[in-house]
Amino acid sequence: MEEEIKIFVEQLENTWSLFLHKIPAIILALLVLAIGVFVIKFTSKYARKTIHEKAKDSIVTTFLVNIISIILTLFLASISLGILGFGNITDKILAGTAITTFIVGFALKDIGENFLAGILMAFRRPFKIGDLIEVQKIRGKVKDLSLRETNIQTLDGKDVFIPNSIILKNPLENYTYHQLLRNDFILMLNIEDDVEKIMNDILQLINSFEEVEKNPKASVSISDFENNKVKINCSFWFKTTDVTAPGGSLRSKILKNVLIYIKTNNINIPPATG
After folding, report:
1. Using CA atoms, how far apart are residues 120 and 114, in angstroms rounded to an integer?
2. What CATH code would you report for 2-107?
3. pTM of the full predicted structure?
4. Greatest CA separation for the chain
């Protein structure tokens, strides 16, 4: 029993002696760690500002800043452990981290796929915040971008979060690319009506709205005949960047004025066939 106590005391003394011997290294490691954390935060903040000024893209900025932060953090951890005499352990930790990252990445394949899609989108730049886009029959303005998903605010005010992998795999329409979008509506008239006058009046009515673009011009044309009826196609263009003309509301205002015109001039709209 006395021998066991003696061995325990010796081990305790050796541990304490080793700890005292390591105190300068521990203090130095903590000091390096504290300074390193401050440097990483300052560097990340400066890098975010500098990259964003040049790239003008939040996805690219976030991606590059995250990469810089990860590299600096691993470098700092390696230095701190090296000061404490764990150089060999550091190498094993880094190797273990790589294996763990691979396993977690495989388990979280969908998240990784969306992340990779976000990176690819960052460099392809198919759209930016504020653009009017449509994907998977969802149309709206891009409200926010991240490496995992894209936030789209639809024209009726709903926030839709679409994984970046879906956006990358499906056809995407960017209406803001040329900043113009066309809207159409059909009007049926009796063949006995003064079709030409009605067409000219409706064209003037459409052009009376400031939101309607003058180039390309709005148009009112005959598209078909059905029995004793004339099918009139009316189309107009508007800027996708114009918040007062998101398409639906402008179309509604134009149709309302067309209806008032029809009633005021006692124009009889023929019933739909079929």
Report:
1. 10
2. 1.10.287
3. 0.47
4. 122
Which residues does 183 contact at the CB level (< 8 Å), separation at least 6? 235, 236, 237, 238, 247, 250, 251
Buried b (16+ CB within 10 A) or exposed e, 129-138: eebbbebeee
**Exposed, middle or buried: residue 227 (CB in 10 Å: 0-12, 13-18, 19+)?**
exposed
Q: Does domain 180-264 have CATH number 3.30.70.100?
A: yes
Q: Which CATH class is domain 127-174?
A: mainly beta
How many Å apart are CA 75 and CA 186, to the nearest integer? Answer: 66
Q: Which two tokens stand for residue 53?
A: 């000024």
CA distance 11 to 14: 5
Residues 131 and 150 sit within 8 Å (Cβ to Cβ): no
Within this chain, domains 2-107 and 127-174 share the same CATH topology = no
> Which single residue is written with the structure tokens 């759209």?
127
Look up residue 238 and give its two tokens: 């508007």
Q: What is the tens place of the pLDDT at every residue in 130-169?
A: 888 889 889 888 888 877 788 999 877 889 999 888 888 8
How far, in Å, are 18, 63, 79 from residue 66 at the CA level? 38, 5, 20
> How many degrees, rounded to 5, is the angle at CA 219 between CA 234 and CA 217?
135
**Is the sign of the CA dihedral 257, 262, 263, 269 positive or negative?**
negative
| Domain spans, the chain | 2-107, 127-174, 180-264
Per the structure block, which two tokens stand in for 210? 């400031």
Q: Taking Cα atoms as reference points, which of 239, 236, 237 lies closest to residue 177?
A: 239
